[in-house]
């Protein structure tokens, strides 16, 4: 599990790119990006069919299978908490996004493995502004009212695209799916497996405590209903780094 990434997305990208190399491989990536750019809202994703793109692209069936298993919210998704989080975002969205860009992302990239992957994509030093904008492009569709729960929302569509983008980066770096790469080259493969279960946990922890925990540090009090959403810690961290409540 430590070296698992996103099996549905990774298997989809591995099927689409297959054994292609060089210019052919990069052309297939461009074709994939062009297709998923058309996924603009949740209803469009639900209606998407493999025969909507030319069979010659060699990805229709793989994407259809991916959407069939990935577009539904998991059983543990709590719609009441999602609604509370959406309402909170309307009040604190600008603050939370500012903290994400100015605290969470910089602190996240202190982690060497995560920084190495972003460096490999060219979006750490030369395209940092683009990296920030693309992060915002995911946050807003997901957090706006109905983004994850209504057909006219676009959060699910955006998440599905981002999962495939991350899987493509992993595949281009590893030349295979993470599972296959680790099996073939266990030691060397570990370093470059971006967004595995372990690095996801690291990133989420930094986002929670490095960014979303900042309102208390800034002296900004939050209503009890916001605290109950479970996103912001209820009290400032103690001297030992733990949170009360």
Give structural notes.
The chain has one domain. It is built from 13 helices and no strands. With 245 residues, the protein is an all-alpha fold. Residues 187-195 and 231-245 have low confidence and may be disordered.
Low-confidence segments: 187-195, 231-245
- Backbone CA Rg: 19 Å
Mean pLDDT reading? 76
Structural class: mainly alpha
Largest sheet: none
Return the domain count. Answer: 1
Distance between the termini: 30 Å
Helical percentage: 55-70%
Portion of residues in beta strands equals: under 5%
What is the count of helical runs? Answer: 13
- How are helices and strands ordered from N to C? HHHHHHHHHHHHH
Form type? globular
State the total count of DSSP E strands: 0
SSE blueprint:
Layout: H1 7-17, H2 22-36, H3 42-47, H4 60-70, H5 79-108, H6 112-121, H7 128-143, H8 155-174, H9 178-184, H10 186-190, H11 197-211, H12 214-217, H13 224-228
Helix pairs in contact: 1-4, 1-8, 5-7, 5-11, 7-8
Offer a concise description of the structure:
Helices cover 63% and strands 0% of the residues.
